[in-house]
Task: inverse folding
């Protein structure tokens, strides 16, 4: 890792972070998009066309989420955030993941692609945390306005990720940018590694496979997040 002193850090995570907790990634062997067309289950158009089919897809994932537990990588990132906060060093954990495993590990992430543990009413805008109702074919109505069907509070393809200005401001000010378990294929988030590089941050990438947006100047740490991230966190804390 670069010898640069750690002044502020942004950690971007993707599905690979939660793979060791038994949650499938999207691309690659056994990924969610294997045998499932994005257009059929993860777009506003699919929701308008066939809400029951989209709902079933997300209900199965929400049911699996209830059982999932954080792994050593989630726990290490929570420690990083906690210890840097005590040192008054900025640390932003931005995640593309819609699972709540970082929260279960005690961290406070920014969910740029929304949350599977939450449902949203498209009529009144109400958002509720709900992992109770996970029956695949039973819709959940809105307790606020009685709209018959809440939608998963996730960002679908064609929708704008959340908190982009906040994350990009943090990247511009960061001395270190770490990308964990993401294939670097989905924009605009995939552009954050290049933004960090352009702003002079030390860029560290951790994943099982080299992501598409990796560049020679980036430090690449191959392996499973649960095995590699705890050591990476020790190095970041030592770079203080
Ligand atoms: N540890 C670390 N990295 C892993 C592991 C693991 N155990 N298992 C897989 N990976 C890596 C793979 O090498 C790959 O680079 O995680 C990455 C997973 O890539 P994707 O499945 O494409 O997931 P992600 O990058 O998070 O997808 C981005 O796409 O489908 C949309 O909205 C969805 O947020 C998601 C976005």
Result:
């Amino acid at each position: 890792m670069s010898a640069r002193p750690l002044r502020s850090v942004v950690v971007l995570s993707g599905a690979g972070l939660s793979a060791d907790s038994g949650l499938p990634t999207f691309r690659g062997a056994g990924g969610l998009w294997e045998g499932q067309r994005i257009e059929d289950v993860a777009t506003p158009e699919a929701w308008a066309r066939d809400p029951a089919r989209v709902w079933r897809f997300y209900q199965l994932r929400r049911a699996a989420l209830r059982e999932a537990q954080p792994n050593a990588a989630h726990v290490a990132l929570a420690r990083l955030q906690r210890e840097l906060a005590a040192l008054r060093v900025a640390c932003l954990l931005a995640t593309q993941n819609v699972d709540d495993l970082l929260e279960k590990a005690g961290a406070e992430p920014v969910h740029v692609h929304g949350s599977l543990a939450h449902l949203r009413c498209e009529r009144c805008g109400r958002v509720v945390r709900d992992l109770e109702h996970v029956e695949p074919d039973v819709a959940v109505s809105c307790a606020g306005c009685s709209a018959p069907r809440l939608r998963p509070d996730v960002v679908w393809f064609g929708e704008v990720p959340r908190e982009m200005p906040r994350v990009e401001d943090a990247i511009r000010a960061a001395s270190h940018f770490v990308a964990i378990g993401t294939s670097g294929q989905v924009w605009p988030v995939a552009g954050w590694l290049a933004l960090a590089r352009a702003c002079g941050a030390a860029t560290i990438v951790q994943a099982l496979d080299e992501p598409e947006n990796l560049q020679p100047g980036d430090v690449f740490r191959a392996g499973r997040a649960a095995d590699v991230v705890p050591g990476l966190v020790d190095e970041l804390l030592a770079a203080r």
